[in-house]
Amino acid sequence: MITQTIEIKTADGICDAFIAHPTSGAHPAVILYMDAFGLRPYLEQMAKKIAEQGYFVLVPNLFYRIKRAPVTDLKFPLKPEDMVEAVQKIIPLARGHDPQLTMNDVNSFFGYLGKHSSVRHGKMGITGYCMGGSLALRTAAAFPDQVAAAASYHAGNLASEAPHSPHLLLSKIKAKIYVAHADHDSSMPVEQIERFQNALSDSKANGKAELYSNALHGFTMEDLPAFNAEALDRHWKTLFELLQSELN
Hints:
The protein is α/β, with parallel strands linked by helices. The protein contains 6 helices and 8 strands; from the N terminus they run βββαβααβαββαβα. It has helices at residues 41-51, 83-96, 99-115, 131-142, 190-203, 229-247; strands at 2-10, 13-21, 29-33, 56-60, 124-129, 147-153, 176-184, 207-216. The two termini are 19 Å apart. The mean pLDDT is 96.
């Protein structure tokens, strides 16, 4: 496997990113959108695990306008007693991030992938976590002809009252989608889960949403206290099934 930190030129500067892909051949592209804790070794591990299945994986630092990765001085893995300080550091980054900024960058990401000899031409997959889950759905809606599969795990506010809430974009998505909610996630309460499910049904989008039991916001992240091993395994199963069905 080949792994590398690379730079992608965007309209607003230079986005640092991590890539992982098999050593030979051309493979379908998958963009992995980070959670609010940013590009770090654990996300690189996740990218490598996906690449092992035969994909070219790109993990952009979505906070590159602020700082190259790592964007904080937090020491992972975090313990429960570290979380107060950690949240104080990442909340301003997450709240200050305009999703449209990432949508503005997507063409640059696509351009990089389209020129790489190890990327197979054709539609790609997106998987996202926390804030990245929302961005995965937004990307699928904004670029319906380029995205074949989109997955969102433990994302918050997918069906809020905001005028540009992701649930309002579902009818624009052509990709097959998979959305995993955590049942103990204050950022995705029951009323939003129900509203999202209704919007998914009404949109007739190709895909489904599921509720993970005994799961906290961030359940896929082994370097965070919210980690849930059973939920992570279920995540890998559903993600690989989605990618294999639409990209292979």
